[in-house]
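fwd from M.: "can u put these together and see what the complex looks like"

so here's what she sent:
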Amino acid sequence: MSSTTAQIDPQLLDILETVSDPEIPVLSIIQMGFVRSAKFMNQLVEIEITPTYSGCPAMDVIADDIKSAFKSQGYQAVVKLILSPAWSTDWITAQGRLTLEKYGIAAPLEPIADKEALLGNKKLVKCPQCGTLNTKLVSQFGSTACKALFQCEDCLEPFDYFKCLK
Amino acid sequence: MDNKLIQYILGIADNSLILGQRLGELCGHGPSLETDIALTNISLDLFGQTRSYYQYVAQLQGGVATEDTVAFLRLEREYKNVLLVEQPNTDFGYVIAKQFLFDVFHLAFLQELQHSKDTQLAAIAVKSIKEVLYHTRFSSDWIKRLGDGTTESHGRIQTAINDLWIYTDELFQPTEADTAMVTQGIGVDSTKLKANYYQLVSAVLAEATLITPVVEYFQKGGKQGIHSEHMGFIVTELQFMQRTYPNMNW
């Protein structure tokens, strides 16, 4: 098992910050914690990314986007997909969580609260629109593999909740 | 393809592929929007896991092998999935019963596989456990809703459980590859998961006011490539594009 902290060469950070998840375009792949390492290897830039869920269809697009972002800056990038250590919602940065909420996606809760929200019918997920906790689970599975579908019982808006993954 | 490790990985991966394919048939046909999305999300998770296993198999096979050749260019008897996952979707009761009976096994299996001496298999297991936990929650929840629901739903889910029960024992029947991999500390000894499996399943069935079936004869064969009559149809659909346009790429 390698370290859970990402090893990113500071010189490469700015370029990586310009690449986003096509399904959550407001967040960069750095804020999502997808990038596990980025370093110079001779003439190449080597990037390691990890998927949220095994079947995440966005990973191929993200790998291509990374390559073209580096190409436009004159670098040639090699992107590797790694599975271990497995991605965790803990790797979403604090700024990333705020951006998620502003975008209308409720940020992941801690594991116990997450389980109670998704199974025990406890009202723990905050509506990203009006801020109330008076929300209900509509479906454990939402618009993408990483989200569950909720509805606010005060403002009645449906919204996505980013499931806790640890 | 006589390598024991390859055969062992295919035994795991093919379950996910074929169940994923069965779930994929429901895309746009689920009983409600939410269940439709849930079932296809589960399918996507299973395909993702299958890809990781097949990429590993392709790497072990070397040469021109890719995850696609492993997925699409085998004959029916070369697929090593259990009979349970290839059973038809008959009705929503069967979809849920099949999912539930597989999920409980799948989760217990992966929880052991994460300790495999093979680091790649262990990594795939760790990743997959998180996903399969959600699958198990979903299917257990629906078993309870249907079982403890109306007379109609109770009857239908009981029928599905009764019909699929004969395929459960195969989950714990070791193949030659299984035994070889257990000896090397790579594989999971499924026989040890059996008692706990039936206990967990029975507990959920009891909560759902359903009866745990008792049968004297269990069906098996999938793990040896001897499939039920449904498998040919699945493979035909799965391989349609590759057979119609050989070597096509997206």
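replying to her w this: The mean pLDDT of chain B is 95.
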